[in-house]
Amino acid sequence: MTDIDLSTVPLSALTAEIKRRRDEWESAQKDLVGFGGASAPVATTKRARHFSGTTMSAAAVERWKGWDDYKAKNKNAKPKEFFAWKKKQK
Question: Which of 34, 45, 58, 63 has the largest count of CB atoms under 10 Å?
């Protein structure tokens, strides 16, 4: 691009060029609306505000089912050993 001495260009020509470029930009933005342009609507999903937790607590109960029996048979048992044993049972 070549450098132009703007002091030699009349102010009316500069403002006309700026307006032309702005109009061109706005027209291009309107054309892009259907193709995911800047002003296209965006779909969002929101998380539920309240969660009762029943499914999570039920899953936790299911995971630990059998721990008491395992602990009674193996006095020094650790949870890691219990889950390894439980995995083998499947």
Answer: 63
3-class SS at 52? coil
Rounded Cα gap, residues 85 and 62, in angstroms = 15
How does pLDDT run across 14-60, given as a tens digit for each residue?
A: 999 999 999 999 988 888 876 654 555 667 777 766 666 678 888 88
Q: What is the DSSP letter of 61?
A: H
- Rounded to 10 degrees, what is the CA torsion of 73, 79, 82, 86? 140
Q: Is the pTM of this model over 0.70?
A: no
How far from the centroid of its chain's Cα atoms is residue 69's Cα?
43
Cβ atoms of 25 and 18 within 8 Å: the answer is no
Q: To the nearest 10°, report the CA torsion of 79, 82, 83, 88.
A: 160
